[in-house]
């Protein structure tokens, strides 16, 4: 990330006339290796070499770059756009279904005034703490018109497309205004930050993680505070950015804060004298930010950490997710040079490839650091990238899935807040830092005084091509998924299900069985469902360690086994009594099984033993269990 500006740092480019904010942040002194600053022109940033202005005005170039990033976003998501409701990631569909459910929740918040931070429409009657589950209100609420008009499946693919393009565009904007002079440098840096293998990996599942368009502005405002003459105003601006990012993804916000802290510390270690000029504005601005953001986020955070269904720490299933060392040197699975089968053992799963830079980019990064090692900012960036790359290895360090050396994360995993972090995702910090190093190096080379500037620029373009072509994005891999039943979309379920009753999909919604969540999302959550895919405290006890899903369910376990092996289960009296108790606890009105569900016959035979013969209605089998559940209530 860019560092505090100053002589020899190479971090401060100066703001262009007419840039956002209406003011210019400048440091005295020349840029390292460049001429003295001059007042600048509308098309040439202050402090840049005195070269002939570009052919296009800046705004036209910017529009062309933004359009290029948007086209690239559509290219990556092109397979989903063919059928948003009927296409899903090739490996599993749990996370997209969860996101679509949360998008539908945002509709209810806006249209019905529902409480935004908790819902009992999922995992009924225990409910789900949405603040502890990344309910993406910061994305879902702006998307309400799209969700209403076209459905949550379309909103999902819109978010993925705009998340990639918006992140690249935001980094390009900040780089071009405040860090580099050469447009190609800002384009290269923005491209890598927005379309890196790590973000491509998350694109099929986590639009909240790839939507990093606020991060460059947060980073820049932190650095502005190090030399601010108006720390109160700048602290307020930072607080508003931080607050909004908290409603997109708190984990990414935590990573940003950690990265800024490590980077600034690395700069101060090299230049302790900076502290005397920095601590007052930085301390004042951060204090204002903490007070305002703390006030705005106090209540949501209380709900998250102390409210109903709050949990502490992640499930054991993901707490030890880490990168393999080799993951830093091979291309990502969704890239031109990637090999999904070869990468299988280098990351926790296909959706968590949080490195995968390829040999050429990894070696180029090392070469850049060696070349520009005299620059304070480059050394600080290198230290930041290396630290978080090591943390991303997790509790055990391996090479090509061999060996198991101790990793420092084994200690940090128990620290407050860090116990809710997936360690492999620290690689996302390294990714952004490499993008910044790439932009700085390109700018240095592009503006270097050389006898043959065209030859030098040809070398720069060639180096970028060698590094970036192997990790160029390919369209995300998609497969077909079952449609939402007509029984649900047509509203034929409504005569059966009352306001305080549930529609129970078969199998019961859980991790790996999320079609029922898509059914509810398609109706804007007009009916409640038991179970689901979310994080909650173990056994439903608030404050326990987290796990995926609600309280263990006997009926859910039986139907999950049947759905997996295709063999009907024979229920004994104890299993039937427990299943009926669970249906009563859920206040079940009907159980619904799509006729074309995989292993539908085995599932129908199993449920018949509990609720009697099913009735065929439209494209589903229906068991009306209101008599069974209401009799118990009486």
Folded structure, characterized:
This protein is an alpha+beta fold and 634 residues long. It folds into 2 domains: 58-78 and 156-471, no CATH class; 87-150 and 482-633, no CATH class. Helices cover 50% and strands 7% of the residues. The protein has 25 helices and 12 strands. It has helices spanning 58-76, 78-81, 94-112, 137-140, 144-150, 152-178, 183-195, 197-203, 207-210, 215-225, 231-246, 250-270, 274-306, 316-319, 359-371, 376-391, 409-412, 427-446, 453-468, 486-489, 515-522, 554-565, 573-586, 600-611, 626-633, and strands spanning 87-89, 118-119, 128-129, 396-399, 402-406, 478-480, 502-505, 535-537, 546-548, 588-594, 615-617, 620-624. The strands form 5 sheets. Strands 7-10-12-11 form a 4-stranded mixed beta sheet. Strand 4 (396-399) and strand 5 form a beta hairpin. Helix 10 (215-225) runs antiparallel to helix 11 (231-246) and helix 10 (215-225) packs parallel to helix 12 (250-270). The longest helix is centred in the middle third of the chain and has 33 residues, at 274-306. It is elongated. The model is unreliable at 5-54 (pLDDT under 50).
């Amino acid at each position: 990330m860019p560092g505090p500006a100053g002589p020899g740092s190479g971090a401060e480019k100066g703001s262009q006339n007419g840039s956002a904010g209406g003011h210019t942040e400048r440091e005295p002194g020349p840029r390292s290796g460049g001429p003295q600053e001059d007042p600048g022109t509308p098309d040439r940033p202050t402090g840049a070499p005195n070269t002939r202005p570009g052919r296009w005005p800046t705004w036209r170039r910017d529009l062309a770059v933004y359009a290029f990033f948007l086209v690239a976003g559509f290219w990556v998501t092109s397979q989903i756009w063919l059928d948003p409701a009927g296409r899903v990631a090739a490996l599993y569909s749990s996370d997209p279904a969860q996101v679509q459910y949360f998008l539908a929740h945002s509709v209810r918040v806006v249209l019905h005034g529902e409480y935004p931070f908790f819902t009992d429409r999922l995992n009924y009657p225990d409910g789900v703490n949405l603040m502890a589950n990344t309910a993406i209100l910061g994305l879902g609420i702006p998307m309400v018109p799209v969700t209403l008009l076209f459905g949550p499946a379309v909103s999902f693919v819109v978010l993925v497309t705009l998340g990639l393009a918006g992140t690249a565009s935001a980094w390009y904007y900040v780089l071009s205004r405040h860090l580099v002079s050469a447009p190609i440098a800002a384009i290269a840096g923005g491209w890598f930050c927005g379309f890196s293998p790590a973000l491509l990996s998350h694109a099929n599942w986590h639009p909240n993680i790839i939507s990093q368009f606020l991060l460059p502005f947060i980073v820049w405002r932190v650095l502005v505070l190090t030399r601010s003459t108006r720390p109160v105003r700048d602290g307020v601006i930072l607080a508003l950015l931080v607050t909004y990012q908290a409603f997109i993804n708190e984990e990414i916000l935590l990573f940003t804060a950690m990265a800024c802290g490590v980077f600034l510390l690395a700069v101060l270690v090299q230049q302790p004298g900076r502290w005397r000029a920095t601590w007052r504005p930085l301390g004042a601005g951060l204090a204002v930010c903490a007070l305002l953001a703390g006030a705005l986020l106090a209540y949501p955070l209380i709900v998250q950490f102390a409210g109903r269904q709050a949990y502490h720490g992640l499930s054991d299933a993901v707490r030890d997710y880490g990168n393999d060392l080799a993951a830093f040197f091979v291309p990502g699975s969704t890239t031109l040079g990637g090999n999904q089968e070869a990468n299988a053992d280098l990351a926790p799963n296909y959706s968590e490839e949080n490195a995968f830079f390829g040999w050429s980019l990894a070696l180029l990064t090392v070469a850049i650091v060696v070349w520009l090692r005299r620059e304070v900012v480059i050394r600080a960036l290198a230290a930041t990238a290396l630290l978080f790359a090591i943390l991303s290895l997790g509790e055990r360090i391996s090479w090509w899935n061999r060996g198991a050396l101790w990793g420092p994360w084994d200690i940090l995993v128990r620290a407050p807040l860090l116990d809710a972090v997936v360690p492999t995702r620290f690689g996302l910090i390294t990714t952004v830092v490499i993008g910044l190093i790439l932009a700085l190096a390109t700018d240095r080379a592009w503006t270097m005084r050389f006898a043959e500037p065209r030859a030098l620029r040809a070398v720069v373009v060639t180096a970028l091509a060698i590094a970036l072509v192997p990790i160029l994005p390919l369209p995300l891999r998609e497969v077909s998924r079952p449609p939402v039943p007509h029984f649900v979309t047509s509203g034929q379920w409504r005569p059966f299900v009352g306001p305080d009753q549930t529609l129970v999909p078969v199998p019961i919604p859980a991790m790996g069985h999320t079609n029922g969540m898509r059914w509810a999302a398609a109706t804007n959550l007009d009916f409640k469902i038991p179970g689901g895919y979310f994080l909650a405290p173990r056994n439903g006890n608030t404050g326990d360690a987290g796990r995926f899903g609600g309280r263990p369910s006997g009926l859910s376990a039986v139907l999950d086994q049947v759905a997996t092996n295709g063999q009907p289960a024979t229920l004994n009296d104890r299993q039937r009594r427990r299943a009926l108790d669970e249906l009563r606890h859920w206040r079940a009105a009907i159980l619904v099984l799509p006729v074309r569900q995989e292993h539908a016959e085995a599932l129908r035979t199993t449920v018949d033993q509990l609720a009697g013969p099913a009735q065929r209605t439209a494209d589903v089998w229906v068991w009306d269990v209101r008599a069974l559940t209401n009799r118990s209530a009486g």
